[in-house]
């Protein structure tokens, strides 16, 4: 050792208490990164297709009402289209917010609470959205005829 370093006291790293201990996660973050790019590209196609069919190919925004949605969801193709769009958008958004929480929530307890709230919101929205798409009935039995759309047989 040189004379300069023999008597020098070691200086502690000032940032050490603020660094989280990194755990090995394999390639999970790589896969989520690739998923974000692929799902983003697919979502652009799904959303522009959705907007084109609803706004350009039809009569515009004034034609979108209960009957329009009911007629569209009578076709399994559009049910599937909207289902894929819902699921991809929710997984994509949840993964993005998860990344933000991991980056900015410094305390482990806060990070856990935020991610649990995020996952709970994901489950609620996806479950309710999926149920609405598949159980939507524009002509419920026993409903007053004056409240039903014109295409429902009384």
UniProtKB/TrEMBL annotation:
Major localization class: membrane
Tell me where the transmembrane regions lie.
Answer: 30-53, 73-91, 112-136
GO molecular function terms noted in the UniProt entry:
metal ion binding
Per UniProt, subcellular location reads as:
Membrane
State whether keyword Metal-binding applies.
yes
| Keywords attached to this entry | Heme, Iron, Membrane, Metal-binding, Transmembrane, Transmembrane helix
The molecule here is called Succinate dehydrogenase
Q: Name one Pfam family in it.
A: Sdh_cyt
**A GO CC term attached to the entry:** membrane
């Amino acid at each position: 050792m040189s004379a300069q370093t023999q008597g020098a006291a070691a200086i502690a790293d000032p940032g050490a208490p603020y660094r989280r201990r990194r755990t090995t996660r394999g390639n999970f973050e790589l896969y989520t990164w690739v998923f974000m790019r692929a799902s983003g590209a697919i979502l652009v196609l799904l959303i522009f297709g959705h907007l084109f069919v609803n706004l350009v190919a039809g009569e515009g925004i004034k034609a979108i009402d209960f009957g329009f949605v009911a007629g569209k969801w009578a076709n399994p193709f559009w049910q599937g289209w909207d289902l894929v769009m819902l699921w991809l958008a929710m997984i994509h958004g949840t993964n993005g917010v998860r990344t933000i929480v991991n980056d900015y929530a410094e305390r482990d307890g806060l990070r856990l609470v935020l991610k649990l709230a995020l996952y709970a919101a994901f489950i609620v929205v996806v479950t309710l959205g999926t149920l609405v798409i598949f159980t939507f009935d524009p002509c419920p039995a026993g409903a007053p005829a004056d409240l039903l759309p014109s295409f429902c047989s009384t």
